[in-house]
Design goal:
- There is one protein chain.
- By secondary structure, this protein is mainly beta.
- The chain contains 2 helices and 11 strands.
- The strands form 3 sheets. Strands 4-5-10-11-6-7 form a 6-stranded antiparallel beta sheet.
- The longest helix has 17 residues.
- The chain is globular and about 80 Å long.
Length: 318
């Protein structure tokens, strides 16, 4: 089910990147060398698989319905003997090892092959968002090592998966990959001012650092492998520059990154550019047939007119 209450538009935020160095008198400058992504992914995947092999969840609880919450998911480490050897999982009729229940996914990011894992507890029965949309979610984020919870939202929050055009991504890459594979709620009701959603997507994602914050210390530790329990409640198809073209369709090369699609090379990616081809005619005014979709107005060169600087026909009334 799509969000009906969000007011989406072009907005501006500044991304502040802080580089810290330590230089004093004649002391040498302290430099930081980021780890190799390929090597780090090997370590990360081993850590994730080890976690999945030695933790179980209360699977029987999720066989009875479709409106359980992320807070109902209980993940527990296998018991160990005095020597640290893992013992059998208790109550196998009630619990399931994560490694036996998760789906394995592969993707390429920064020229590195990554694996990530999802536990699908409820698919959801509404629509599914695109990688660039705004989603309404509840979630809890924790670290694989240590298990500390670094972020959570008990009250639904609206998050832009692609950001605002002045940051590389609104969320970590893993969210852009996972959220579109689940469906939102199919309905909601309001009871005493409280919104209740029905049949929403519910799951967990297990994420290597390379699809998360990598060397950043956003979670308190760099190269942190993460776990997100989440509920996908609603979504809104984003059109960041309100030009009539949904942001996901501005990803012309299909790489899930709208920041590198800049037809007129004016340093404003198409999804935040009011004139994508730089021909002096606003993209929204190149919707010649007036159906609200400039992508189906094809010019003489066989491409949409809003992407062809040679096509300057406009729907403006003089």
């Amino acid at each position: 089910m799509k969000i009906k209450t969000l007011n989406l538009g072009l907005y501006f935020l500044a991304l502040v990147t802080v580089f810290v160095s330590c230089e004093k008198d004649d002391d040498p400058t302290v430099t930081y060398e980021e780890r190799d992504r390929t090597e780090q992914q090997i370590v990360d995947d081993s850590t994730l698989v080890d976690y999945l092999e030695h933790h179980y969840f209360n699977s029987s609880f999720f066989e009875s319905g479709s409106n359980q919450k992320y807070s109902d998911i209980i993940v527990t480490k296998l018991p160990q003997d005095d020597e640290g050897n893992y013992l059998d999982m208790p109550d196998p009729d009630q619990n399931t090892l994560l490694i036996d229940a998760v789906e394995t996914h592969e993707t390429e990011f920064f020229d590195v092959d990554y694996k990530y894992y999802t536990l699908r507890l409820n698919q959801g029965e509404g629509g599914a968002p695109n990688f660039s949309d705004e989603v309404r979610v509840r979630y809890e984020g924790s670290s694989v090592v240590g298990g500390n919870i670094f972020d959570s939202r008990v009250t639904p929050i609206d998050i832009s998966l692609v950001g605002n055009g002045f940051t590389s991504f609104g969320t970590i890459r893993a969210w852009q990959l996972v959220m579109p594979t689940f469906n939102a709620a199919d309905d909601f009701s309001i009871d005493n001012g409280i919104v209740n959603y029905s049949n929403f997507g519910l799951g967990i994602m297990f994420v290597p650092s390379g699809l998360a914050y990598f060397s950043s210390i956003s979670t308190g530790t760099s190269y942190d492998n993460l776990i997100f329990k989440f509920e996908l409640l609603q979504y809104e198809v984003s059109d960041h520059d309100t030009d009539g073209i949904p942001t996901y369709l501005e990803d012309l090369d299909g790489d899930l990154d709208v920041n590198n699609d800049d037809t007129d090379e004016d340093s404003f990616p198409n999804y935040i550019d009011l004139d994508d081809d730089g021909d002096g005619v606003a993209t929204s005014n190149e919707d010649i047939d007036g159906d609200g979709d400039p992508t189906n107005d094809i010019g003489a060169n066989g491409i949409p007119k809003y992407l062809d600087p040679e096509e300057t026909e406009t729907n403006e009334v003089e």
